[in-house]
Amino acid sequence: SQTIHQWPATLVQPVGSPLSLECTVEGTSNPNLYWYRQAAGRGLQLLFYSVGIGQISSEVPQNLSASRPQDRQFILSSKKLLLSDSGFYLCAWSFLQGPGELFFGEGSRLTVL
Amino acid sequence: DAKTTQPNSMESNEEEPVHLPCNHSTISGTDYIHWYRQLPSQGPEYVIHGLTSNVNNRMASLAIAEDRKSSTLILHRATLRDAAVYYCILSRRGNTPLVFGKGTRLSVIA
User: Fold this and answer.
1) Disulfide check for B55: which of A6, A55, B25, B50 has CB 3.0–4.6 Å away?
2) Which residues on B lie below 8 Å from A34 (Cβ)?
3) B97 CB near a chain A CB, below 8 Å?
4) Among all residues of chain A, which has the CA nearest to that of B35?
5) Nearest CA in chain A to B98
6) Mean pLDDT throughout A67-87?
7) Helices (H) then strands (E): counts for chain A
8) Within 10 A of B79 (CB to CB), how many other CB atoms are there?
9) Model confidence over B11-21: pLDDT tens digits?
10) Is the pLDDT assigned to residue B95 strictly greater than 70?
11) Is residue A97 within 8 angstroms of chain B, CB to CB?
């Protein structure tokens, strides 16, 4: 069976500090990978998605970036965090082909102070 | 991209059926209808999806209008654990990512 893990679960970072959130998927090959963010009291916003190693599509221009160094690894990064980067970050995967059912990780709650 | 329209909130009594509506009048012939739900402090959870025919699974039923311009998620007996935000989303087969709207916040009253 397939599983998805993301870490860390929670973190508190000062403004201007770097960020690295990691996500890995097990039990499948060539998944589509996604990063979503949910700010407090807001909806789920698609940030990045990837259909293969090194292939990243950005949905929202901002100070965040994503990388996919391996088939089942997806990393969300920032060089300098802003207060507005606070939120609940969710990694998800889907099969490469199919109607697009998404499987979400446990989420990483980021607070920028 | 085709859009969906859902009520902001709904309320139901425990152990009664719940019908959550979704309008998608601009749906195309290749769009799947997905439903997800999100419990507090958790990621969204897949509920059900369909294309043209009604679908049933252990969590819910999906009733799709004949013209596919609307659908209804049916929870047969609401429990307190069903209190969540329910999202109705359209997707195309392949690599198009799912875009979540604001969903419907379902409250279940004991």
Assistant:
1) B50
2) 97
3) yes
4) A101
5) A100
6) 96
7) 0, 11
8) 12
9) 999 999 999 99
10) no
11) yes
Q: Tens of pLDDT along B39-77?
A: 988 899 999 999 999 999 999 999 999 999 999 999 999
Record: contact A100-B45, CB cut-off 8 A? no
Partners of residue B40 on adjacent β-strands? none
CA distance linking residue B55 with residue B49, whole number of Å: 7
Q: Inter-chain contact A102–B94, Cβ cutoff 8 Å?
A: no
Is residue A24 predicted with pLDDT exceeding 90?
Answer: yes
Place of tokens 């999100």: B38
**Number of residues written out for chain A:** 113
* B80: three-class secondary structure by DSSP: helix
For A109, which residue in chain B has the nearest alpha carbon?
B41
Closest alpha carbon to B86 in B99, B65, B102, B68:
B102
